[in-house]
Amino acid sequence: MTTEAATRRMPGAPCWVSLLAHSLSATQEFYGALFGWEFRPGPQHFGPYARAFLHGREVAGLGELAPDRHLPVAWTTYLASDDADATAEQIRSCGGTVGVGPLDADDDAGRMAIASDPQGAIFGIWQGRSVAGTTITGELGTPAWNELVTRDTSSVLTFYEHVFGYEAEPVISAGFDYLTLHLKEHPVAGIHGVGNALPRDRGSHWMTHFAVSDADAAARRVTELGGQVLQPARDCAHGRLATVCDSEGAVFTVVQRD
């Protein structure tokens, strides 16, 4: 196992991303055209579901919402756990909420839960068994980074430190409220405090960044495929990136990688 793969499996490290959409076929078409993903059927216990692959390696999950479920279409970041039940209890004891599970996924793939932090940001917990999670990250068309976007970092830092054991390192920059979260000295995620710029219609949320070769070109491609550019390509500490949404409104970030 590579160091990168081992890091993704550390309890607390982002290990998987998934999206629930209204039309699975349209969503597959969008991301297949944008990132070159191919799809294989996944577990159907909770409705139509597909796993996305790039170069034969698992990248993400896509599911279809039941017609009567009017939930926001959004990417969900899953954090690794060695014991989903114990993590769920820790979440509750630290002021968070567990909305789904813990429950077993298909065919001993793992055990999962959906939770939210004290500020309402939704995330998943994944205790991998036969399926450890994303098997390729950082390469073009795959998850490159996950960060919590919230009003201010201090309001939720204690929660994540206590539940997942993160060590936080502030980014020293005037007017920039950002913490990098480390596990055993490895950077695994971030918390970005954006103050009043936090979208009122979304509140605090976890954001998935996908690696692309050209952030400007990827943003243009998003619009060609029926999505929207929410924040045009710009340069930041992580590289050149753009915030976009897909054809159903699921928000994500494309970040330029060499």
Mind explaining what this structure looks like?
- InterPro entries: Anthracycline_SecMetBiosynth (IPR052164), Glyas_Bleomycin-R_OHBP_Dase (IPR029068), Glyoxalase_6 (IPR041581), VOC_core (IPR037523).
- It is built from five helices and 16 strands.
- It has helices at 3-8, 24-35, 84-93, 154-164, 215-224; strands at 14-21, 38-41, 49-54, 57-64, 75-80, 97-104, 110-116, 122-128, 143-150, 167-170, 177-183, 186-193, 205-212, 228-236, 239-245, 251-256.
- The chain has an eight-stranded mixed β-sheet with strand order 2-3-4-1-5-8-7-6, covered by helices on one side. An eight-stranded mixed β-sheet has the order 10-11-12-9-13-16-15-14, covered by helices on one side.
- The longest helix has 12 residues, at 24-35.
- It is globular.
- It starts with a helix and ends with a strand.
- The mean pLDDT is 91.
Quick overview:
This protein has 258 residues and is of the alpha+beta class. 19% of the residues lie in helices and 43% in strands. The protein starts with a helix and ends with a strand.
**Class based on secondary structure composition and strand pairing:** alpha+beta
Helix residue percentage: 10-25%
Shape designation: globular
For the terminal residues, how far apart are their CA atoms?
Answer: 24 Å
Give the integer mean of the pLDDT values: 91
| Spatial extent as radius of gyration | 17 Å
- Beta-strand percent range: 35-45%
**Total count of helical runs of at least 4 residues:** 5
Low-confidence stretches: none
Number of β-strand runs: 16
> How would a textbook summarize the main sheet?
8 strands, mixed
Spatial sequence of strands, sheet with the most strands: 2-3-4-1-5-8-7-6
Order of helix and strand elements from N to C terminus: HEHEEEEHEEEEHEEEEHEEE
